[in-house]
Design a protein that fits this description.
Layout (H helix, E strand, L loop, with lengths): L8 E6 L8 E7 L2 E7 L11 H5 L14 E3 L20 E3 L2 H19 L4 E4 L6 H15 L4 E2 L7 H10 L17 E5 L3 H4 L1 H12 L3 E5 L12 E3 L6 H14 L5 H7 E2 L1 H8 L4 H8 L3 H13 L3 E5 L1 H4 L4 H14 L9 E4 L6 H6 L6 E2 L3 E2 L3 H11 L11 H8 L11 E5 L3 H4 L3 H10 L2 E6 L11 E4 L8 E4 L4 E5 L12 H11 L9 H15 L9 H7 L1 E3 L25 E2 L18 E6 L15 H6 L4 E4 L1 H6 L7 E5 L4 E8 L7 E5 L12 E4 L6 E2 L3 E7 L4
The structure holds iron/sulfur cluster (SF4).
């Protein structure tokens, strides 16, 4: 490794992986990144995890796409005979940019003009910048003329956001991660922070060291459990039972913050009435946690000087994900643990820019800054701002779009063409056989990416884009910090910046866009987005970001340092109060039975990110975790006559994988955990596409499977 003193240049940016948003410096020599240093950013203070430190050389991987590609005639759009995507020569031919753009945009336009605006949809990406997200949703809304635009927030925290918007009036966090420093109790639920938000986990561990109590509540006990005061290994799918039991104790034992509830909450009586039937004694057999432990944790939470809740996809990825989050909102409200330092609600956002992409309007029911598309005032404002008529109905979400791609030909809402920028639904969607069939059935699929992903494999035209170190732009982290990354490299070959490609498609669909300036007009796009978001980031100018790199919002003026803790005086709801919403037990869509007796839990691991398209092409990360493994506990391995390292076949009603098994005694009895990063053992072949009715998020955390010894990985 070349020392950072010997490099040609150092370029400041942001880690491209998780939502923690660590600030970094790329060290570049001979037009290659040779190492990465952590900067003293507000979220990381110089720290980096293994992904941020070593996950950079994917940008130089020989499989980078460097020319536009058009599918050869007659090549089937499926995985029946697919090599590992990357060997694309048999399926695609090279094309010029002019030909590829004309084909990509021309056919989208034809489909829109022939079948109407409902025929098209677009997926943007939480891996792109805020500017790319903003421009992409604007293209769909004003060029496709529909609201069928979404991204992986739908697979991540959509249910959390639905509950937060309903309850506290804002989908973002109330307090920043490093505020755990001021907490006496840190309640981590449905999250594996040491793997998925590793630098955030360091703040939690430091807090534990100085005496804070960590409570880890999760069906699968992970590394942070080593630092916990109490671990609540509740039975998978019983979140509402357990959380309502905690609220029951708070109310029954007189631990309610009466003044806070009186002055700042509504609907408390309905909540009180609802949790009467959820005593710890009644819920203990359901959730598997002793009643006395539930009482002890509830008392500690209510009486702590500050108690903060941090949660992940273990809460959100259920058909009752919104209800799970409603319970968390209720817990902090009845105890008055919100609106002050060291307390509050923090849904740990997954992707590096899932917060920003959602803020920028990359969701089907909201314009930028969560202004509903069907709210007449917001609709009129954006029609005037963008100067075109807009669809007034919310569009379809990720999984709904897949269903609509397979709708009968006479369905007026059938999706026939899609533009996918930087997402990989052929790996990340639930029930992959269905999703891949849907993508392969489209009349026209345009995919813009840096590698021949599984989704690009199904495309009609593939547009080679830029990796994060090859562009300048902003991303917003889980802490509501808008952070600037600067271009360190040029894209390889004839690959282009995403912002350039989106504008080229827009122009060919008849939009008179002209964003002038360096880096494809990124500053002009940012300024327009800033106006569209009204007050939220009005104090964060492009010039200020050049100086400060990272600014927290809400930020109302150039002098405003930003507000790390919100809801101090009021909530941004219609009446300024938290709306408490009672929740009852709703079982998972697919429970284990005699035929499919195990529960499949999917998720991520430390070394690989999401569908693996970047990290599996990063040398160090791939060397650390080169192959897919499933995790089971020793008891289940023994019962099945298995040893760690054996091959098993995991089969659901929708698909199966053969995979090596490893021992992990944190995985509960009767369950198997599989990360979804590996194309050769794609976990989502087995997952269930059943949706939470409000957040429209699929149930990735629970479906029924068989586990059988043997198979061919
Ligand atoms: Fe990157 Fe997240 Fe690791 Fe920080 S914690 S270095 S943002 S992956």
């Amino acid at each position: 490794q070349i020392g950072s003193q010997q490099v040609d240049r150092k370029v400041d940016s942001v880690c491209p992986f998780c939502g923690v948003g660590c600030l970094i410096t790329y060290n570049v020599k001979d037009e290659k990144i040779v190492s990465v240093d952590g900067r003293d950013g507000p979220a990381n203070h110089g720290r980096l995890c293994v992904k941020g430190r070593f996950g950079f050389d994917y940008a130089h991987h020989p499989q980078r796409l460097t020319v536009p590609l058009i599918r050869k005639p007659g090549v089937p759009k499926d995985f029946s005979d697919a090599p590992r995507p990357g060997d694309w020569q048999d399926a695609f031919r090279e094309a010029s940019w002019e030909e590829a753009l004309a084909f990509a945009a021309g056919k989208l336009k034809d489909l829109r003009d022939t079948h109407g605006n409902k025929a098209l949809a677009g997926f943007g990406s939480a891996k792109g910048s805020n500017e790319e997200a903003y421009l992409f949703q604007k293209l769909v809304r004003t060029g496709f003329r529909s609201n069928n635009v979404d991204h992986c927030t739908r697979l991540c925290h959509a249910s959390s956001v639905a509950a937060l918007l309903e309850g506290v009036g804002s989908g973002a966090v109330s307090n920043q991660v490093n505020d755990v420093e001021h907490a006496e109790l840190i309640f981590v639920i449905g999250s594996n922070p040491t793997a998925n938000h590793p630098v955030a986990a360091t703040w939690m561990k430091n807090a534990a060291k100085r005496g804070a109590k960590i409570v880890l509540a999760d069906p699968r006990i992970t590394d942070i459990g080593r630092h916990a005061w109490r671990t609540l290994q509740f039975k998978a799918d019983t979140d509402v039972a357990m959380l309502n039991a905690l609220i029951h104790v708070v109310i029954e034992e007189g631990l309610v913050d009466e003044a806070f509830v009186r002055d700042r909450a509504s609907n408390f009586e309905a909540l009180r009435e609802n949790v009467k039937g959820y005593s710890p004694e009644a819920m203990a057999p359901i959730c598997g946690i002793p009643a006395e432990t539930l009482r002890e944790v509830a008392r500690a939470f209510a009486t702590a000087k500050g108690a903060m809740v941090l949660w992940g996809m273990g809460i959100s990825q259920h058909v009752h994900g919104t209800d799970n989050a409603r319970c968390l909102i209720a817990l902090v409200t009845v105890t008055g643990q919100i609106g002050k330092p060291g307390s509050g609600l923090h849904p740990l956002r997954g992707q590096n820019n899932v917060q920003g992409a959602s803020d920028a309007g990359l969701i089907p029911m909201m314009f930028p800054n969560y202004q509903r598309v069907d709210e007449p005032g917001a609709h009129a404002w954006f029609e005037n701002f963008w100067g075109v008529p807009l669809d007034e109905k919310p569009g379809y979400t990720v999984v709904e779009i897949m269903h609509k791609a397979l709708a009968p030909d006479d369905d007026p809402h059938k999706i026939r063409g899609m533009y996918i920028m930087g997402e990989n639904p052929a790996m990340s969607d639930p029930d992959l056989n269905h999703a891949r069939h849907a993508l392969g059935s489209l009349e026209h699929l345009v995919v813009q990416d840096i590698f021949m992903t599984e989704t690009a494999w199904l495309a009609d035209v593939v547009l080679p884009a830029s990796a994060w170190p090859e562009k300048t732009g902003t991303v917003s982290n889980t802490d509501r910090m808008v952070q600037l990354g600067k271009r360190a490299l040029n894209p390889p070959g004839d690959a282009k910046p995403d912002l350039w490609i989106v504008q080229q498609i827009a122009q060919r669909m008849g939009l008179p866009w002209n964003y002038e300036g360096e880096e494809c007009g990124v500053a002009a796009v940012y300024d327009e987005m800033r106006q569209a978001m009204h007050a939220a980031i009005s104090g964060i100018s492009w010039e200020r970001l050049q100086r400060e790199s990272s600014v927290t919002y809400p930020c109302l003026s150039e002098e405003d340092p930003g507000q790390p803790t919100v809801f101090i005086d009021t909530f941004p709801t219609a009446d300024g109060r938290v709306k408490l919403v009672p929740a009852d037990i709703i079982p998972a869509d697919e429970r284990p039975d005699a035929q499919y007796p195990f529960v499949l839990i999917t998720g991520r691991q430390l070394e690989h990110w999401h569908t693996g398209s970047m990290t599996r092409r990063a040398t160090v990360l791939d060397a650390l975790e080169p192959m897919a493994t499933a995790s089971m506990n020793q008891g289940d391995l023994d019962a099945l006559g298995l040893q760690a390292g054996d091959v098993i076949t995991i089969r659901s009603r929708r698909g199966e994988v053969a995979i090596h098994v490893r021992r992990d005694d944190g995985t509960p009895a009767g369950a198997v955990f599989v990360p979804f990063a590996y194309y050769e053992a794609a976990a989502n072949l087995m997952t269930n596409a059943a949706l939470d009715p409000m957040g429209k998020i699929p149930e990735f955390k629970y479906c029924a499977v068989q586990v059988l010894p043997g198979g061919a990985p």
